[in-house]
Amino acid sequence: MTSRINPRWVLFLVAAAGIFAGCPSDTQEIELAVIVPETGAWSPYGLEIRRGVEIALQTLQEDPAMPAVNMHWQDTASDPQTAQRLLQEAFDGTGYAAIGGVMSAEAALMVPIAEQANKVLISPSASDPDLTKTGGRYFFRVFPSDFDEGNRLAKFAVQDLKLETVAILGAESEFGSSVQRFFKSSFESEGGEVLATLGYAQGSADWAALAAQAIALKPQGIYLADLAPGVVQLINALREAGFKGALLTSSAFSDPQSVATVGGDGIYLTRVAFEADSTDPVVQAFSQRYRDQYGEAPGLFAAHGFDAMMVIGEGLKQAGGDPPNRFWQRLRSLRDFQGATGPIQFDESGDVQKFPQVYLVQEGKMVSYGQLHGLPRRSSAAARSADEADGRTRPQAASSLQRLKTRWRIRRAAPLTH
Question: Could you give all domains of the chain from N- to C-terminal order, each with its CATH number?
Fold first, then answer.
């Protein structure tokens, strides 16, 4: 007697095999890639972020609900094309998800790879608003966008500092162009006047000449749109030239070493409210581990590296063997997950729902302007309501403003194979 196989069952079994081939089992290690600049111009950010990811791994290792993970560390060498290639290799292989896109220039080339692969890429620090407009469902970031920073600082400059005029000194780079664009638009919409925008090649400028040009305009304040090394050079040049007005800049300047280097007072910046000495239990535990391991307090970018990995860890604990192309749903469904930089949840575009606070440099240290002046901390809900009152919700604004040791195996620069 012969038996006949129903062809519909054959099709079902083939389809099921295809669906579950990408699902990690309870005992199978999940392959994760961390693709950050550890050498080159952007390495100060990448190395600090990596440290934060490592502390998160130690924390997650202690949670029995966390599945086993195999980490692959990759160095982009501060080159966007290298970042793109490394992510392609990871996602062509067995990579389940990735942390990467430290700079917006890297993220811009990595986002399409994540979308094509149907796998999650989470950025710890890319801030270009356009990234989440084109990123689809697989790109997330735990760092606020340039619009959030520029809008907040511009309002502060006009409403609190009473500045009527500013000049802008900006690096001719993707980051410099983005942050100055949103600050300029917001400052002008608040009634301020931008006297001039003076551009320069990133990393190779005549700082004294730029300072002299800006001071000759007689602005009440000067906005500095560059990464930390350029901002330090500009601050020093402006001070040597005798400028006494307000100096304004972005969170790119917020690493403790840069702030300590320039010292003094009169510098204002926006950044997420992270305090290494906070009494919040999550921050305390993170900061203590970081100090024990690295001998210093964690900075803002380490905190965002920590949060990026903790978010992935929380998603994996909930995934229950989900294939990579469904992992995005776990991250999108997070609600008020407590990270080192505060509660984390994402909107429909993958943007984190965080809003920057204003800080000032005082005696070589960053101090919260609100706390210094006894102001209540501006919550995310309050910030969102204020923006909506202005007709400036973030999805609309971007267009309106012109656009481990046991069960953990950690590898460095190991390719993810099929």
Answer: 30-144+277-346 (3.40.50.2300), 147-271+355-400 (3.40.50.2300)
Instruction: Please report the pLDDT score of residue 387 as a whole number.
Output: 45
Q: Which of 171, 128, 121 is nearest to 148 (CA)?
A: 128
Q: Tell me how many helices (H) and strands (E) the chain has.
A: 16, 15
**Is residue 304 scored above 60 in pLDDT?**
yes
> Which has the closest alpha carbon to 316: 114, 35, 52, 28?
28
Main-chain phi, psi angles of 66, to 5 degrees? -80, 125
Two structure tokens written together for 331: 């991250």
**Kind and range of the H or E run holding 199:** strand 193-200
How far is residue 365 from each of residues 149, 266, 386, measured CA to CA in Å? 20, 11, 29
Specify the higher pLDDT residue, 130 or 198.
Answer: 198
What mean pLDDT comes out for the span 88-106? 96
The DSSP 8-state label assigned to residue 406 in this structure reads T
- In DSSP terms, 199 is beta-bridged to 170
Residue 344 per-residue DSSP state: E
Q: Which residue has the tokens 């229950």?
A: 320
Count CB atoms within 10 A of the CB of residue 292: 9
Q: Is the distance from CB of 249 to CB of 220 less than 8 angstroms?
A: no
In this prediction the pTM is 0.76
